[in-house]
Amino acid sequence: MKLDGIFVPVVTPFTEENKVNFDALGKLLDWQLEAGVAGIVACGTTGEYYAFSDEERTQVLTFIAEHVGDRALLIAGVNDTHTQGSVRKAEQAKALGYQALMLAPPIYCLPQQREIVTHYQTVSLEVGLPIIMYNFPARSGVEIEVDTVIELSRDPNIVGIKESSGDFTRALSLINANLDNFSVVCGSDDQGADYLFWGVRSWIGGAANYLPEAHVQMLECARIGDYNALRAIMTKLLPVIQNQESADYNQKAKLALIHRGQDVGAIRAPLLPISDEDQKAFLQLLDAALQ
């Protein structure tokens, strides 16, 4: 599988009663697909998968698969605290028609590199779907080291890595390794232009939830080699993206979508709404980015 395009880890809208709002989710998916995104990531961190019940997870995965259909690549986040938990989630996604998985190392338990290798190889062997590794040590607590990435890239089911460490020197090491049948995916929104300049053509970005058109435009600029236009777009987006990444990432993703007319509702506990002052500062930057 060649990874190419903008992939959105879609937020999960909630009603005032804190239930999943499937009507709003359908409208959001349609809006993002109309903007030209190439894939939808269900049950990612921006989608608040960590706050789902098992029943809600099944319902959300099912709805997204049925609503999107063949209009975009369907990717399921299958993170868990242990390997068999990820295997079960991956098997469920496969049965529902998902075409790929996004998987971080098991969270909280702090596995060693050889244990990370075994984790991914087990999911690959038992499920048999393409896997995008997810390197985000600030959330998982461990880094997938470059040598480990190279080793795992030899598994035919492991097709790429979403690189969210924020360390662009590390990203360059992976990009310049020129691994066969393996893609480095931008996972640091504030470095999107840098990745695209270096030849990356896939981006899983939480900010693409509310700025899908701009993300698609940036990728198109890179494809045709118009790096001046690419830089101009990124210059406009960077302040709002940096503000989102500084704190309260999921809250701001939803706030931005509401500001753009999408009825996604509030964030779910344990996260809380941000202050009026922080909302105002963020939305001012968003409005500037949309001009």
TrEMBL record:
Gene3D superfamilies attached to this UniProt entry: Aldolase class I
Statement: the UniProt record of this protein carries the keyword Lyase: yes
Any one of the GO CC terms: cytosol
UniProt key word Nucleotide-binding: no
Highest taxon listed in the record's lineage: Bacteria
A Pfam family the protein falls into: DHDPS
Similarity remark: Belongs to the DapA family.
Record protein name field: 4-hydroxy-tetrahydrodipicolinate synthase
Organism: Photobacterium ganghwense
